[in-house]
Amino acid sequence: MTSGNLSEEPQVTGNDEAAAKLKCIADSILFHDRGIARRLDDGVVLPTTLAPMVIRRARGQTPGTIALPGGLPDRQVVAYGGELKSAICLTKNGHAMLSHHLGDLDNTLAYEEFLKAQIDLADLMDHRPEIFAVDMHPEYRASRLGRERAETDGLQLIEVQHHHAHMAAALGAAGWEGGIAIGIILDGLGFGPDGTIWGGEVLVGGYQSVQRAGQLGYAPLPGGDRAQMEPWRNALMRLDAAGLADVANEMFPNMPRQELRKAANSGVNSPQSSSAGRLFDAVAACLGIVPKRQSFEGEAAMILEALATSAPKESGAYELANIDGVIDPNPMFQELVRDLDRGVSHAKIAARSHRAIATGFAQMARAAANKAGATTIALSGGCFQNRLLLEFVAAELQGFELCGPGPVPVNDGGLAFGQALVALAQAG
Question: Which residue segments constitute the domains of the chain, with CATH numbers given?
Answer without folding.
Answer: 1-36 (no CATH), 42-162+412-427 (3.30.420.360), 180-403 (3.30.420.40)
